[in-house]
Write a structure and sequence with these properties.
- By secondary structure, this protein is of the alpha/beta class.
- It is built from twelve helices and seven strands.
- It has helices spanning 2-9, 13-39, 47-69, 75-89, 93-96, 111-128, 152-160, 169-174, 179-184, 201-206, 230-238, 274-302; strands spanning 99-105, 138-146, 164-166, 189-192, 211-215, 243-250, 260-267.
- α2 (13-39) packs antiparallel against α3 (47-69) and α6 packs parallel to α7.
- The relative contact order is 0.11.
- The structure holds 5-O-phosphono-beta-D-ribofuranosylamine (GRF).
- 5-O-phosphono-beta-D-ribofuranosylamine (GRF) binds at residues 106, 108-113, 193-194, 214-216, 281, 285.
Length: 303
């Protein structure tokens, strides 16, 4: 139950405790304030009193939880929470709340990231012009996470005006996993595109089935630790395969292991080298990754 709440709200254990405490204290404060206010009316405790009391605490509740959330450091969460509740109640959520914020984790040249960014702005533009159904989900690249200073993907982010986050191993694996930064940018979904570190278990718990990766071969073959970049293509050619391809999969705690979402194939010709095969694979990736992300995001948005 608690784990489910943690996943639903994208928060770590400590934040969950603080959020539940805010709910409890906010509820008590609201009940107390409601009774105090009604004392001024000199009304007897009859049906009218109860009706007024319920109306009063309904109005006071958002104010009370927001107030309590400030000293407990949960204001940003409750602000988002109340906006969500309000848009659900007013029926606006169906049309407006369907854009997912994604973070791309990448440490290389960033050609996939570039393609994903390009597609996201096209989707948002189309949405603005109402060319696609109003309730179809779109995504927006809200953050680029990188572990290599000077990586090409950082320049791509800068050109596109997307915030970047340079991460360090120690904090990523043994600290808070950069969850506060992901929360600050309201990240709903994580896309790996050339990111070589394993995802820490804590991040997988907070983003269940919300982290996907692309691998430049047909998994389960040619995956696992150390299988990245040209090493994958060299292994495919050395094994005499006549086809290779791409695999897009959910991320679990093992390298290149989670449930497969999509695969596409290409031919490995006699004369192919690791370089020419990499070019074919990149074309397949660029043609398919953004569309697969859009479709997974749409499904998540509906569930
Ligand atoms: C891609 O081939 C992808 O399959 C792998 O890393 C590469 C990243 O390339 N995971 P780029 O940085 O997107 O150009």
């Amino acid at each position: 139950m608690l784990k489910k709440l943690q996943q639903r709200w994208n928060v770590n254990g400590l934040n969950l405790v603080l959020i539940i405490t805010t709910f409890a204290l906010g509820g008590s404060l609201c009940g107390y304030a409601g009774r105090k206010i009604l004392l001024f009316t000199n009304l007897e405790k009859n049906v009218l009193w109860f009706v007024l009391y319920i109306l009063l605490i309904t109005l006071l509740w958002p104010l009370c939880v927001l107030l309590i959330s400030i000293p407990l450091g949960q204001f940003a969460f409750f602000k988002r929470y109340l906006i969500k509740v309000w848009s659900k109640m007013s029926g606006r959520s169906k049309n407006n709340h369907n854009k997912m914020n994604i973070a791309i984790f990448a440490s290389g040249a960033g050609s996939n990231a570039q393609q994903i960014i390009k597609t996201s702005s096209l989707l948002l533009q189309e949405k603005g012009e109402a060319k696609i159904e109003a309730n179809k989900a779109t995504y927006e690249v809200a953050l680029i996470v990188c572990n290599k200073p000077g990586a090409g993907v950082l320049q791509i982010a800068e050109k596109a005006g997307i915030p970047t986050l340079l991460i360090e191993k120690e904090r990523f694996f043994n600290g808070d996993n950069y969850l506060p930064e992901l929360k600050k940018h309201q990240i709903d979904f994580i896309v790996l595109a050339g990111f070589l570190w394993k995802m820490p278990a804590a991040l997988i718990t907070v983003y269940p089935k919300k982290i996907i990766n692309i691998h430049p071969a047909l998994l389960p073959k040619y995956g696992g630790k150390g299988m990245y970049g040209s090493k994958v293509h060299e292994a495919v050619i050395a094994a005499g395969e006549n086809e290779s391809g791409i695999t897009i999969h959910f991320v679990d705690e093992l390298y290149d292991h989670g449930e497969i979402i999509f695969q596409a194939k290409c031919e490995v010709a006699q004369q192919d080298t690791a370089e020419t095969l990499a070019q074919k694979i990149h074309l397949l990736e660029h043609a398919n990754y953004p569309a697969v992300i859009a479709s997974v995001v749409e499904k998540q948005n509906r569930s």
